[in-house]
Amino acid sequence: MGEGHMADHIKVSTAKNSKAPKVELREADVIAFLRHNPQVILNNSDLLAAMAPDTRFETDTVVVDMQRFVVDRLRRQVDDLKASSDRLVTTTRSNMSLVERSMECALALIYSRDFDELSQVVHDDLPLHLGVDAISIAFESESIPIEGSHMIRALPTGTVNTLIGPDTTTRIRPDVDGTEMLYGNAAGLVRSDALVALPEGEGLPAGLFAVGCRRPGHFEDGQGTELITFLGHVTRYALGRWWSLRL
Predict the structure, then answer these.
(1) What is the pLDDT of residue 217?
(2) Whether pTM exceeds 0.70
């Protein structure tokens, strides 16, 4: 045998010998792999096509149709995804509508011409648009303007710090009994509320903006309070224009 043929023979033999040994793939290995990686079948639709529609694995008492199982599972996932998408769209539209109505109320607060108009927006319009039962604004002062006494609650000094705390400006109370100090005659309706601290300054004492609902859990810990905080500060600003003129 020539040297060239001998070299080729050695190369071929080496290549054959270098092949990795075959590993027997057991059914249990496949099952374990698919259980840990279920997305393999879901992400490879050609695997479904390779399964005969009528292929069945039978035991004495159980008939398992793998294709139907996978298709049903995919259908459920699609239905769940669609339902989640519909909920997201509905929630987004609801939030957008709430923001728009709140902006309208904010403008109504700013353009109020007296305490009566301001009171109507705070006690009638805002609760209706926010879907709550009571809204109150209160200040730590004994000198409440007479014209505003029907809408402004007087609080003892230190109440804001006691109810909300020194290191935060808002507080959610998922389950609470409303107090007359905050909600007046509407106290009996309030079972859940959100509180916003209003800072002292610009001629106004420290205050509190409270939004109450009759349904326990309506306000939940961790819930965003940006919109309520915004409305609280707009209400404070609107009140401030009339406060100093009426003292």
Answers:
(1) 93
(2) no
